[in-house]
Amino acid sequence: MAAVSSNLGEQIRDELSCSICLELFTRPKVLPCQHTFCQDCLQELARKDETFQCPNCRLQVSLPSEGVEGFPDSCFMANMCERLQNKATLTEKTSEQPLSENRCSLHPSEELKVYCKQCQIPVCEQCLEGAHDDHRITTIKKAAQERRFTVQALIDEGRNILESYCNFIRDLREKEKTLNEQKQQTSSIILAYSTFLSEVEQNHRRNLDTIQKERIRVLADVNELSAACDRAEQEMKQGRIEFLNQETLLAKVVGKYRGKAAPTPVQTQPAVFQPTDSPVSLLGHVMVQSFPSTPIPAAPTCTSSNGAAGGTGHHHGNPEQEEYHQYQRLTFGGRGSNTGQFDNPSGVTVSKEGEIFVADFWNRRIQLFTLQGIYVWQFEIYPVSESTNPENVAMNIAGKLWMVGRTKFDNNFALQFYFDKQNNRTNPMKNINLQRTGWSRGVAVDTKKNYILITQSTGDWPKRNGEVQVFREDGKLVRVVGQQQGMKYPQHITVDGEGNILVSDYDNHCIYVYNDAGQFLFKFGG
Fold it and tell me: How far is CA 157 from CA 201, 229, 235, 247, in A?
């Protein structure tokens, strides 16, 4: 069992070591690909260029404006490394110090003589004459012999659980290695086609992010269980009386993980490149391998060049005859002011029922279509002003529509609507007054927290300043995001299922990515 303990310790140390210097992390920093390295190691790696490759997955990484210090800190890894170092220091000190006499904590001059069976603690003669006078007692040596088997059984059980957890972490590392190899193979095949490469990179980052989250979650469990087993085993091996008190603590920790489901294998979705024999200039498709699931309607996209709204639908045939879903493009609308036509469709969103809402800017209305592009209904934005232009729309999880817009006087606002489908009308519910800027805004809804995120740009070009304002439904400002990263004109915004914020910057020609707390993660494009 000692060999198993040593092996587990080595595995934990490997997971907490920098792959550049091979030492425990020092001021660990996280790259956009979710790999972690020491800050000093990254500074050495990036000292010559503004971009460098991740040593693990070869992703091309751009330095933040603050340099290496601008990458996010990995507080979890730093704390785990500190605990591992403290544990090693404590073990070293304990092995160097001679065993002290076993003294009573209540009567320091008295030596612990017997073991109280009723209270399950060692006691001295004074304690025995007082609080433990009528309790059943035995010798400390006999109590240690009786408890040794129980404590050892708990240690063995804890070690077995630890072994399964470490096997899971080892599998994560192998899966990550396989993903990197698959990505390298796919990238080499389509190296000449940068459009496909960007899709491969994004899919690869999502897979690595999934693996990293699972690794961090399981490492925390491993640390707690390993520490409890090590402490009990060390005290029992050295013959310390304190190990008699470890049984209750160890039973509690082992019991926690005894009833906890073991980690399940992580399912990733590697991208594959499928060339096409089409005679037109279509080189191939990047497709993500996934497990069977319920198909989700593809979201439409808008364009204002000809007043048409476009989108993608999907078709499902016999699964034995086709391996992937076949997609087709749907276009509807056209420039004009009649129903079903658009004059600068500036925003679009889709409800969970498959209804498409389009913000028709110059026609000062929002139009509703089916997922097949069939016109259903429209309404004008009169509750705020008789001359209101809707700039963008977003749907919350309850099916209520949030719209940002402005009046002819450039007054900006965000308005929530409820649709009374039976009576064919809308009811404005909430209104957020926004700063008057004159620039278009984007809007998104964080469905996990029910926050409303609105982009804002102030100042004149080329000295515009951009940010994302996060509001509660009652209009209270929660936080402001993006002021420190040089954002100029954030025009469109969305929030993914994890709460991460993605913002397109019209002036800087790039996409900014933040986590659900507003912390900058990375940007791409340019």
Answer: 42, 9, 17, 13
